[in-house]
Amino acid sequence: MYKYIMDKINVDNPVRDKTPLKMASADMPSAKRISNGTVIGFDMDGVIVDNADAKVRIAKIHGFSLKLHHTPSEIIKTILPQIILEKLQKTLYDNPRFAFSTPLMRGVRGTLADLAKKKIPIFLISRRKIPEVAIKILKNHTLWPQYFNKDNSFFVLHPEDKNTRAAQLGITHYIDDEMKILNVLSSVPNKFLFDQFNVFNKADYYTRIKSWAEFKKHI
């Protein structure tokens, strides 16, 4: 499947971030120092792209009936058996039928345009295992290279890598749809939980947002 999907895409410098993850220091200018203000980081799935409907459809193929509010990563893993969850994830991320048809979250394009006008630095920090696919999706939605590119997009392996990269970049605000990721972002002062289905009622220690329109009120 990996070879099949790779044969269908063609991107420039499509490599996983292999830069040594070092903490920002006085001799390493971060985006925060350059902008002297807000620096925003984003996760991709469940934040920029909306794969909730795709998860429902793939689960149905495997004989499971899900509702949209079951699809957040930290909810779905409590419902589906691990072997089915792994099959769902492989289909979702590797099968062109689903991978390249994932829609954007409503309002994301307008928000990115507003941030660009305000000259607020943005960064994508994703744990997508195949960066080439992520880039192709962003290209399909005309977000690459208009907003994201090889200089402000990073693909890492572990949750802790997100924190190290965020510290290096001087990120002040980060949006993710998983609490386990926000839990390890000790370097980020402002953490936002993207909860479009309002299912994380006990996450009040983070700023919960249901939409990009809500996030815009905080910047």
Describe this structure in words.
Mean pLDDT is 87; it is low at 1-15 and 19-36. Helix content is 38%, strand content 11%. It is globular and about 50 Å long. The chain folds into 2 domains: 23-50 and 104-216, Rossmann fold; 52-99, no CATH class. The N and C termini lie far apart (41 Å). The protein is built from 11 helices and 6 strands.
Please describe the topology of this protein:
Layout: H1 2-6, H2 31-35, E1 40-42, H3 52-61, H4 73-76, H5 82-94, H6 96-99, H7 108-117, E2 122-126, H8 131-140, E3 153-155, H9 159-169, E4 173-176, H10 179-184, E5 190-194, E6 207-209, H11 212-216
Parallel strand pairs: 1-2, 1-4, 2-3, 4-5, 5-6
Helix pairs in contact: 3-5
The percent of residues in helical segments reads 25-40%
Strand-residue fraction? 5-15%
CATH superfamily of the largest domain: HAD superfamily/HAD-like
What are the low-pLDDT stretches, counting only 5+ consecutive residues below 50? 1-15, 19-36
Biggest sheet, strands in spatial order?
A: 3-2-1-4-5-6
What spatial form do the alpha-carbon principal axes imply?
globular
Profile the largest sheet.
6 strands, parallel
Q: Please name the CATH topology of the largest domain.
A: Rossmann fold
The computed structural class is alpha/beta
Number of helices: 11
